[in-house]
Specification:
globular, 362 residues, three-stranded antiparallel beta sheet, binds 4'-deoxy-4'-aminopyridoxal-5'-phosphate, alpha/beta
Length: 362
């Protein structure tokens, strides 16, 4: 490994080294074709086999049942903020939104353009530190769907349970924690995630959608925003991000090799527990942002005793090869994003550095 650093960025994030090496080895002539993956037709058998492998990999990793389609779209998770209400919410109808952070709020703004939004929980007043109590959520009888964000990337706030929305269609933005722990896909009408954290590179959005939702798409929906049409065309209504889908197939192979989602969940827990222990054991030098029962295993957010120390912390860390630690501008402080591919050694280095930095700056 030459000059690789520990990249704590919130996304695009680290990819497994073996995936990058495999992609490099196949770069000039993809599987004997004499072309790179980026130069072959998306209608070729070769690319179709890649798309199939990516889909199969996702299906295996998350035990996606046959009742759900696995789609690879473009436009990022942000386009889903609009596509979901454009397909499932119309004027005079309503949808429930649970707001545990900045991304959920962005999704709400887009839904507002299409119909009535009931915010059934918002953690905004407290600076988004919490998730609702599992039994405190009550859904509107007439809601077309309920939308929540399983992990809020900016605040580092994560659900520790999967909400039970009863008969209401459950929709989840899982951009920053998909594939980090097992989920029960049968509970969801739609799950979506930008790829650039746990799935692959940016430029692909994974959408897992239950078949009955496709029947709800309005007949006059624009083609490129139409889940039914995209599904009917196997994610190839237009030219897909061939490079992105290829890398996803490699990431899914890697995940399977290391033991799948249950194995990565254990590693993820070890990593986040090490970091939270360092925060809690710092005699108040470091303070976690999220409430304990809402702490994220993916984005560990914390503060130093004075905001002036943030810059020194980040630049000294960067000198040691620990990069991308600056918190999001809206929250400040420090954010260590430790997605699936982030190695535990990087966490050990950060913990060591945190100890030294607090000793020197108390
Ligand atoms: N939702 C969540 C939870 C995110 O973390 C992000 C990006 N960080 C987005 C949505 C937006 O994703 P994209 O940039 O792919 O549109």
């Amino acid at each position: 490994m030459t000059n690789r650093i520990f990249n704590f960025s919130a996304g695009p994030a680290m990819l497994p080294t073996s995936v990058l090496e495999k992609a490099r080895s196949e770069m000039m002539s993809f599987r004997g074709s004499g072309m790179s993956i980026m130069e072959i037709s998306h209608r070729s058998e070769l690319f179709e086999s890649v798309l199939e492998a990516a889909e199969k990999g996702v299906r295996n990793a998350l035990s996606v049942p046959l009742s759900h389609k696995v789609l690879f779209l473009q436009g990022g998770a942000s386009l889903q903020f609009s596509m979901i209400p454009m397909n499932f919410l119309s004027k005079g109808r309503s949808a429930d939104y649970v707001l545990t952070g900045t991304w959920g709020e962005k999704a709400r703004v887009e839904a507002d353009r299409c119909g009535r939004v009931n915010v059934i929980y918002s953690g905004e007043e407290d600076g988004y530190r919490a998730v609702p109590d599992e039994h405190a959520l009550s859904f509107s009888d007439d809601a077309e769907y309920m939308h929540f964000t399983s992990n809020e990337t900016i605040e580092g706030v994560q659900f520790s349970y999967e909400p039970d929305a009863g008969n209401t269609a459950l929709i989840c933005d899982a951009s920053s924690d998909i594939l980090s722990r097992p989920i029960d896909v049968t509970k969801y009408a739609l799950i979506y995630a930008g790829a650039q954290k746990n799935i692959g590179p940016s430029g692909v959005t994974l959408v897992i959608i239950r078949d009955d939702m496709l029947d709800r798409v309005p007949q006059d929906q624009h083609s490129m925003l139409n889940y039914r049409k995209i599904a009917a065309n196997g994610s190839m209504l237009n030219t897909p991000n061939t490079w992105g889908v290829y890398l996803i197939s490699l990431v899914m192979e890697w995940l399977e090799e290391i033991g799948g989602v249950p194995a990565i969940e254990k590693i993820n827990k070890q990593k986040s527990e090490r970091l939270y222990a360092a925060i809690d054991g710092s005699d108040g030098f470091y303070t976690g942002h999220a409430e304990r029962n809402a702490r994220s295993n993916m984005n560990v957010t914390f503060r130093l005793p004075a905001a002036e120390l943030d810059a020194a912390f980040c630049s000294e860390a960067a000198r040691r090869g620990l990069d991308g630690l600056r918190g999001h501008r809206s929250v400040g402080g420090i954010r260590a994003s430790i997605y699936n591919s982030f190695p535990i050694e990087g966490v050990e280095h950060l913990v060591e550095f945190m100890g030294e930095f607090s000793a020197a700056n108390r």
